Amino acid sequence: MLNATHEELLRRAKDLDPPTQHHIDGRSEAGDGGSFAVVSPRDGQHLVRVADAREAEVDLAVAAARRAFDTGPWPRLAPAERGRVLQRIADLLEERREELALTVSLEMGKPITDAYAIELRAAINTFRWYGQLADKLTDESPHTAPDSLALITREPAGVVGAVVPWNFPLTLAGWKVAPALATGCTVVLKPSENSPLSALLLGRIATEAGLPPGVLNVVTGDGPVAGRALGLHPDVDVLAFTGSTAVGRHFLRYAADSNLKRVWLELGGKSPNIILPDAPELEKAAATAAWGIFFNQGEMCTAPSRLLVHSSIAEQVTEAVVARARELRVGDPLDPATEMGALVGDSHLARVLEHVASGLEEGARLRAGGGRTLPETGGSYLRPTVFDRVDPGMRLAREEIFGPVLSVLAFDDLDEAVRLANATEYGLAAGLWTSDLSTAHQVSRALKAGTVWVNCYEEGDLTVPFGGMKQSGNGRDKSAHAIDKYTELKTTWIQL
Q1: DSSP-derived 3-state class of residue 343
Q2: Boundaries of every domain in the chain
Q3: Distance of alpha carbon 379 from alpha carbon 303, whole angstroms
């Protein structure tokens, strides 16, 4: 566990010296694209300036990945050897866990305790799990006539472009990079311009662990330039993206306008969390609803932002959530006692506040929060916010807010609950609280979501896939199913 005081972490933050140049072909590359400032949302202060990728830098990174795939050793190594390198990456992430957690907390506002205990744990486990999986993938040989032999082999798809967001910068990078590397692919990783520092550290750690040059390249820059260049690049074979649905549409267009590369999308969400009167532990259900929407400042695609509660218990549950919202400790992400940190920046805070204003204008009732807090720090802090009397047609109930804003909707029967839950363009996740086994099965099947949690929320591990339906995307991260995104099936028919 993290064993440092607030004062110690403040001192270590001042001494932090993160990499600021692209990581291309196993070495630092400044490039000619200039630089941009990385601003910490905890206090609005500039941390460093980081290299800003233009098309030329993306070309360099893709060329390095192409060489590493076409002529380098990585795709040709025994899978067990690739697995050992991935596990060495996990070991080095563990050794530098506090430094990485501090970097994540500074660049995107996550509480240091969550960065250390949750973000880094997930990233470390991801590289270790896929390292262990690498030599356990099997090919097929179906039964054919006696005079023939058929082989179905998985082959690495080639150069992977991975574009990841800022809310879980290392976890989501790991979900793309680790399975791609395990299969023998090479990768160009573009992190969000809001959280480039942890990704640059990851690139250097991977090289230290023994990853050959060009196998993992990291370029930093904004989406409309660097992300677009990666999406349009003819030498990128697969594009894996986590982010907004609007940007996901761009990547599909980029693929259509270039080489028809496969595009895998994990996009937005407006997840329903249904609490029925027979929930086994109503207090736990309410506490989990509050935790789910306020964890990571509500900056989660799976955040249970629509709380659907049976009308007979709606006030009781809402009161419990409101009480938790009012007592939640919002503060400096570098303070180990902080429970909710800063939103990623002032522009994002302004967008969240626009949704709060729309809720008030459309007639929802504000029960907690609703405004900025700690303005004297210069940081981007918002009070945990709860609305009830929310109508399904309101923006609060329809649009992804990506902040600590909960909408409570009441229902009178199970059919109405399912109807409300599915009344969204998204289909990423859902929650259900009930003691009835039949209800749990029937409602889980009726909900249009890639993951349904019953009597819990945000539980699981790397053995289970993660991804969405409808406009929440396609393909799956995590588990052995993620391998499908980074491999091609080849049939070899041999006439004997």
Answers
A1: coil
A2: 6-267+473-493, 272-462
A3: 23
C-alpha distances out from residue 208 to 22, 58, 95, Å? 16, 22, 12
**Residue 46's Cα: distance from chain center in Å?**
24
Rounded to an integer, the average pLDDT of 353-363 is 98
* Domain 6-267+473-493, CATH homologous superfamily name and number: Aldehyde Dehydrogenase; Chain A, domain 1 (3.40.605.10)
Is residue 258 a contact partner of residue 58, using CB atoms and an 8 Å limit? no
- State how far the Cα of 409 lies from the Cα of 389, in Å rounded to an integer: 6
Cα separation, 170 vs 235, in Å, equals 25
Tokens 């399912």 correspond to: 418
Question: What contacts 24+ positions apart, CB below 8 Å, involve 9-15?
Answer: 9/102, 9/112, 9/334, 9/335, 9/336, 10/334, 12/98, 12/102, 13/102, 13/106, 13/334
Structure tokens at 65: 């990945």
Residues 425 and 441: their CA atoms lie apart, in Å, by 23
SS3 385: strand
What superfamily would CATH give domain 272-462?
Aldehyde Dehydrogenase; Chain A, domain 2 (3.40.309.10)
Let me know: does 196 contact 21? Beta carbons within 8 Å.
no
Identify the bridge partners of residue 431 per DSSP, sorted by sequence position. Answer: 273, 453
User: Which CA distances in Å does 403 have to 270, 368, 427?
Assistant: 11, 14, 18
The rounded distance, in Å, linking the Cα atoms of 420 and 446 is 12
**Active site amino acids:** 266, 301
Ramachandran region, residue 353 (left: φ > 0; alpha: ψ -120 to 50; beta: rest): alpha
- Label the pairing between strands 451-454 and 306-310: unpaired
pTM score, two decimals? 0.97
406-449, pLDDT tens digit by residue? 999 999 999 999 999 999 999 999 999 999 999 999 999 999 99
